Amino acid sequence: MKYTQENNNIILTDIPDFNLAQTLECGQCFHFMRQDDPEKSGKDASEYTLAAYGRGLRVRQAGDTFTFFDTSLEDFEKVWIPYFDLERDYGRIKRFITERNPELEAIVERNAGIRLLNQEFFETLLSFIISQNNRIPQIKKVVADISSEWGRDAGNGMNAFPDADMLAEVSETDFREKKAGFRAAYLCDAVEKILSGEIREEDFEGLGLADCEKKLCTVKGVGPKVANCIMLFSLGKREAFPIDVWMKRVLEQVYFGGEAKAKTELAAFAREKYGEYGGYAQQYLFAYAREEL
DNA sequence: CTCCAGGGATCAG
DNA sequence: CTGATCCATGGA
């Protein structure tokens, strides 16, 4: 990885295993907008605006060159390198997965540029509550509308997702007006549990996966799938393995000849098969499933 | 019109 | 304990 500052931009090169569109469009994140025309851009070119850690970012990939517009060296190093997980060796991760599971070679290769973002806990908690029994474009719209209503201006046309205290007075009716639907009450409960200190991000640090999941499930609207998404995408628990309808489909197809299996059985199967790399395997499989099944 | 979405709460047995 | 039903909303 090499990066230099030119004008007010950071130019990033020599970063293997990184594709911007694959990373943002693989369902782990909802707070971004594509700015270029996907039909005109090639597979390795794209431009997005996104919001994270209170900042709006415009970022472009053109081949193997990445431009982070209007970004200081300090923000790049302290915010965006960790956010995009750029210091991690994904070549080693992919080798580990495919050497033990050759059936995943083509599936990993298809989206070989995915990186698992390190997202903020509170936004991830609410975003994946919103995601339950919902579709990605609708989830993105609700997240964007909540941010523009109650979040601060973050620059580059984006609003930051609001902090819990900024949502303290927001009612279930308010969330329903943002089209959160029946999840509105769950969002209120999550905000309350954060404000009361009943749920604190720091309390998850030393916890094992099972205890972590159990604690997250005390929030209304958080079950096994949502809890695993939160652990994987915002708590650094890379062995977490969320199973939704797509994961169920792809696992049944790849490993069980299309035979139906219970989600609990699939979870145990995945833990045995992928171990501490479960989260990575899951993301390659999810991207494949959404494209092909 | 029906069916379904990165599911979970609630209720019935 | 497992299984069925309901839940808002919008697009196919």
User: Largest sheet, described in full?
Assistant: 6 strands, antiparallel
**Spatial strand order of the main sheet:** 1-2-6-5-4-3
Quantity of strands, as a count: 8
Q: What value does the Rg take, in angstroms?
A: 19 Å
Describe this structure in words.
The protein has 293 residues and is of the alpha+beta class. Among the domains are: 2-87, TATA-Binding Protein, CATH 3.30.310; 121-234, Hypothetical protein, domain 2 (Endonuclease III, domain 1). The protein is 46% helix and 13% strand. The chain is built from 13 helices and 8 strands. It has helices at 20-25, 73-83, 90-100, 105-110, 121-130, 136-150, 172-177, 184-195, 209-216, 224-234, 245-255, 263-274, 278-292; strands spanning 2-6, 9-13, 32-34, 45-52, 55-62, 65-69, 153-155, 158-159. It has a 6-stranded antiparallel beta sheet. A two-stranded antiparallel ribbon has the order 7-8. Helix 5 (121-130) packs antiparallel against helix 8 (184-195) and helix 5 (121-130) packs antiparallel against helix 10. The radius of gyration is 19 Å and the shape is globular. The structure holds a DNA duplex (13 and 12 nucleotides).
List the SSEs and their pairings:
Layout: E1 2-6, E2 9-13, H1 20-25, E3 32-34, E4 45-52, E5 55-62, E6 65-69, H2 73-83, H3 90-100, H4 105-110, H5 121-130, H6 136-150, E7 153-155, E8 158-159, H7 172-177, H8 184-195, H9 209-216, H10 224-234, H11 245-255, H12 263-274, H13 278-292
Antiparallel strand pairs: 1-2, 2-6, 3-4, 4-5, 5-6, 7-8
Helix pairs in contact: 5-8, 5-10, 9-10, 11-13
The structure holds a DNA duplex (13 and 12 nucleotides).
